[in-house]
Amino acid sequence: MNSLKRIDPRRPFTVTAQGLKRITLGVTGVAGVTEFNVPLAAHGEQPKPRRTTAAPQRVLLVAAHADRGALDDHARQTLAGAALIADASTEVVLLVFGEFTDDAAALGADKLIVLPMFERRTFAPLDELNALAACVAAYAPVHIFLPDNATGDGDLGRRYAAAANASVATHVVEIDAAHVAAYIHANTALAARALPDVVLLAPNAVEPKLPFIGAGERIVWRFDNDTVASKGVVRDLGVEEIDAAQLALEEADFIVSAGNGVSDVPAFERLAATLGAAIGASRVAVDDGKFTRDKQIGATGKTVEASVYIAFGISGAVQHLQGIKDCRHVIAVNLDASAPIAKRANLTVIADARETIAALNEAAAAARSARGTGAALLNSTAVAEGVLA
């Protein structure tokens, strides 16, 4: 038997002035440092450099709506696209509609303007158009970038281009500092043109991971209500809440999904109702007759884009992983720590699915008793997060 103790080469280390890597014995889970006390990321990753430190001569403006304080993948890709084509004398300004708590510098922005009054659940297209126009007037950007989506940004970009009589390119799938391109003729050919005033970027056109960071300076900007308000031209009728079980899985923002490891289906359905989540299932669970075929998620079922996807007792076959590839946060509950779903998940709970579901239901029931039914339902997601943690 080999009793030699081996050193993990990926453990935190220091870098000497000569560039030699030295693993620090007995140290785990801390960031590496150099002999000049310059901090390094975990496992010796070098901190990313600033894209530019030169005085800005021109501006690229990126506008997008935030969701729960952060940009979605499509908006991050759009910001990355602007940052990648910006030269050393160009400043990237990010205009966010809604609350924003993410790291703008890490996303590539040099300046950040946040308009928390325009949260995504409020329909105020004319007010948003006026706010965007005011920002354009203040910074005079040479180009404006927005994600070409169906949740407000694509509409805003088209409204602005029409109001300002600006050149615009939509569904852009290719971009560099000189041109943009979009598919034509049923996606069989590309049409290219010079970079227009307004660029509406298609999803997945740009890799959002950047080799640099921006300055991330947060700008406090106040608008004159008299110039921004649309004075009742558009009236917001509010959001109509519906039962999550009636929502198509492709449109659901919160999904709990069951696999072969879920044996108590009624308890699982009670949990979904408590959390206000739509119900999905793996192919195995559907084939076993536990759920109807319209609940199946995967390559041979539905492809979903939920902000939160909780998989109970799902091993994660490649077909299922394909169906959840666009989900923002994936939580897996599984007894097998090496299951494929664990590699995709942002958080993996190594536990029995039935016991975890029962614990969540008990926690929700206790919360209802302690706080009242209404408060418990409002805080059910927080309860779930607490139990899973």
Automatic annotation (TrEMBL):
GO molecular-function terms, A-Z: electron transfer activity; flavin adenine dinucleotide binding
The UniProt record lists the keyword Signal: no
UniProt KW keywords: Electron transport, Transport
Name of the gene encoding the protein in the UniProt record: fixB
Record protein name field: Protein FixB
Domain Electron transfer flavoprotein alpha/beta-subunit N-terminal: 59-231
UniProt superkingdom: Bacteria
Family: Belongs to the ETF alpha-subunit/FixB family.
Entry keyword annotation includes Transport: yes
Protein's organism: Paraburkholderia fynbosensis
An annotated GO BP: fatty acid beta-oxidation using acyl-CoA dehydrogenase
